[in-house]
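Please fill in the sequence for the structure shown.

STRUCTURE ENCODING:
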């Protein structure tokens, strides 16, 4: 029988992940479902959570749940208003308590961050940033969080100073699956040399990205460009475009990369080609460390 001290929840647009937590940041058990924010009406959030974690609950005590991600968006379970940078990644006083009907649990949501100028927002990544800082005390520099919407965040003195979002992952998915380029990417595969060359091309001449993209289609028709080469080249072009736009963040800075292993490795390879040393951190480990830090601060500030 799993009897956690508390439950950590990472609730995104497409998936719900819950972790039964002991006193430390190490999970006792994990459960995942497809009940992401994007498919739930507001009244369906509590039942979705109970379906996943009901076996961990105890009728004789109340289990605290600490959640982050899109669950706190305007379209989510309960809106957790953004906090404005510069500010610490987490603030126990800014956490929002969600009304629930089940007496066996309480739910609090970590709010996201916003930036007034240039306008930008994040939800979920602030918890990963807090976790990365908890795992690397005293770190000053830049965090790169690659994904569907990649984030670059400048942190100093335990505060998020500024950040910038790039739609690199979403553009890759749209171009490779829905644009004319999809015809040349019908099979899996990869080519490191093609990735490196495309990355260098875009960093040198980012204004030619549109022509370079159509060149993938043309070369597929004329010269039989292999799908794996095309896929790697598309990735290199788009990550190169992101690096060109985020140069002010990573140039001359220590960089921590937080994300899935394969994607983080691509970003590390791309930055290494520019002479930037990086360290990679697991997205799961950082989000758990961040939620654990939020839980600790809640306990410290509770009356």
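FILLED IN BY: designer on duty
SEQUENCE:
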């Amino acid at each position: 029988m799993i009897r956690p001290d508390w439950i950590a929840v990472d609730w995104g647009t497409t998936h719900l992940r819950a972790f039964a937590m002991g006193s430390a940041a190490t999970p006792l058990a994990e459960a995942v479902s497809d009940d992401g924010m994007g498919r739930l009406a507001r009244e369906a959030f509590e039942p979705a959570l109970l379906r996943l974690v009901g076996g961990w609950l105890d009728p004789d005590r109340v289990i605290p749940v600490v959640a982050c991600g899109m669950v706190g968006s305007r379209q989510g379970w309960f809106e957790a208003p953004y906090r404005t940078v510069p500010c610490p990644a987490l603030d126990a006083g800014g956490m929002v308590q969600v009304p629930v009907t089940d007496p066996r649990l309480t739910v609090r949501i970590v709010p996201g961050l916003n930036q007034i100028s240039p306008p930008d927002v994040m939800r979920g990544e602030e918890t990963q940033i807090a976790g990365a800082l908890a795992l690397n005390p005293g770190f000053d520099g830049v965090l790169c969080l690659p994904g569907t919407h990649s984030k670059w965040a400048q942190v100093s003195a335990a505060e998020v100073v500024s950040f910038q979002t790039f739609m690199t992952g979403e553009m890759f998915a749209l171009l490779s699956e829905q644009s004319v380029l999809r015809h040349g990417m019908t099979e899996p595969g990869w080519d490191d040399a093609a990735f490196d060359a495309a990355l260098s091309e875009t960093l040198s001449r980012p204004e030619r990205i549109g022509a370079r993209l159509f060149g993938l289609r043309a070369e597929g028709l004329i010269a039989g460009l292999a799908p794996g080469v095309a896929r790697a080249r598309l990735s290199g072009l788009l990550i190169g475009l992101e690096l060109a736009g985020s140069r002010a963040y990573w140039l001359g800075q220590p960089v921590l990369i937080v994300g899935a292993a394969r994607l983080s490795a691509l970003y590390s390879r791309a930055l290494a080609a520019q002479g930037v040393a990086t360290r990679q951190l697991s997205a799961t480990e950082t989000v758990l460390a961040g939620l654990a830090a939020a839980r600790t601060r809640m306990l410290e500030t509770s009356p």
